[in-house]
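Protocol step 4 of 6: structure prediction from sequence.
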Amino acid sequence: MDERDSLTAAIAAVERAGIDPGHWGAALGAIADLLGAQFATLETFDPKSHRHIGFRASRLQPGTMNAYLRHYADISPRTRYIWRQPERTIVYDHLVMDERGMDRDPFYQEFLAPAELRYFVSGAVSRAPGQHTIVSLQRARRRGHVSPRDIEKLRHLLPSLRNSADLAQRLSAAGSEAMRGPLDWLSDAVAVLSPEETVVYANAAMEDIFSRGDGIDLVSGTLRLADAAGANLFARALAAIRRNRFDPLAPLHAADLVASRSSGAAPYIVAVRALPATATDTLYLAADPLAIVFVRDPAPQPPLVHASIRLAFALTEAETQLAGALRQGISPHDHADARGISRNTVYTHLRRLKEKLGCATVTGLVRLLERMHPPVEGPGDRTK
């Protein structure tokens, strides 16, 4: 296959990867072959923290990848340089440092040299708000620096890489939305944490807990435990999950703890579970959620809707409580104040309740709830 056909095949492979993430390994492998590289990576960073939020690779051994993600990515002079470059910029070694500098630099000597690697070429794929993506090709020392022809090939690939990376991100977000529906039905509080340890999803029950601020809160997008001992155990659990995230032989980490409450109520029971990152022989994805957190309130919760009605409409705990309040003539504002939660949270529950019961207005919703048999039970109904 001549160079033009190889370039066309690589572009086609990249375009397939945008639709099906399972093809990223083949796409990056085709790019590596085209540019005479040992392996290729597609990395996405948070522009503020410079931490990885996505990492795809072809032909990269798990041990090498672990070492890079845990330590050497932070000290790489290459990524520090390309972070500052505009989209579609091509960067190679001598723009970063000379040969003498490479001989002294820890990234080159401790990380690259044992793998018989030396040279690279990278391209700034995109600089979207909240994430910067780069593609990098690693070459063996014996292959020497990339040629002007290699740089031109990569320049031709960058638009396709940008489009496919953007499409893959959008499809991944859509898949995450589909996953959230079943979690929202759970009566236990659930939160999903990103690799940055921020909350990317919280079901209605978890939103209620956040709004109370009684031992567990949401601070700057991060789940915080007020109890020092519980917070320490929680941080250690997340650190263990992150440490073993890309080790295919390590078991998925799990931790259980309690979170004391300032109100003096029984402490929450908190379960932290690792979520596996996508990993195959050719693809590693660091943008997968890091962990899922379950929080259970041990205090008995009275049923607010007959089981058959709750199951029929797939109501969450928060939605069933609001339904009971509406049937008793309690306004959403008063319900929020009585439960100590924000009005915005209650109106989110109200919107979902109207959607699930097919009502356009609150008046129509209340009338429907009043006509239901078995009836929706409020706190006053349970004594009958």
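Step 5 (inspection) to follow. The chain has three domains: 3-173, 186-276+286-296, 307-383.
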